[in-house]
User: What shape does this take?
Amino acid sequence: MLKKLPNPIDRHVGSRVRMQRMLAGISQEKLGEALGLTFQQVQKYEKGTNRISASRLQQIAKMLGVPVAFFFEGAPAGEAVAGSFTDTAATAYVADFLTTSEGIQLSKAFVRIKSPRVRRRVIDLVEALADESGEIA
Assistant: This one.
């Protein structure tokens, strides 16, 4: 039996819910309690395996302090148009990174660095470390 893959829009919306929830420092359990759901249901929403209804998305947006449109920013638009200016693969890995706890921690810490020179040095350090491990071309 074939397992049905989540719709790309549902996955995107779910990943944006996860990202905003993590930025707000709210656990899946706490969000679930506030919505009258189990944390497993929140997990399924965040993975895109269960579709979020419009009314539920409105509730989540209100609880996380963002407009509903936030969850659709950068969403895949279906088939890519040849010559279009968007690179969905490039934006997908950024969204994936920002839904990890490490991505959230790194982003929060990085924006607290006020000096542009220090920020540049951090970027240089991370790129050098990535080059050493052979993960960046």
